[in-house]
What we know:
The protein is built from 7 helices and no strands. It is mainly alpha-helical.
Amino acid sequence: MAESYMKQAEERIRHAEEALKGGNYPYVIRQSQEATELSLKASLRFVGIEPPKWHDVGPILLQNSERFPDWFKGKISKLASISRRLRREREPSMYGDEESGLPPEQLYSIEDAKEALDYAKEVYSFCLKLLR
């Protein structure tokens, strides 16, 4: 399952890169969040933790940091922060902001998209190293 999650995360990163080239910034955000979620859930599975069915697993990583190698344990705080940050953008990147009436395309810039994709790639690379 962990390997499958990583394959799915890699695919989402690929789609996010394509969307960035095409200027579809909300989709980059959404795919980056999903790649991050899948990567982190793969890392939890790798150490024998059944991931919860919610999207931000950062708190679970923090609560179980002793199960990870020291090099990964040192990254958990940052990984949890990235997870939390991208989780907040999950719904707005798909549905827009209901309160202001803004569609997703008006919420995100190229800078937002690049940042989200960089985060997803960073999380993915740490989790891939863990699984290897």
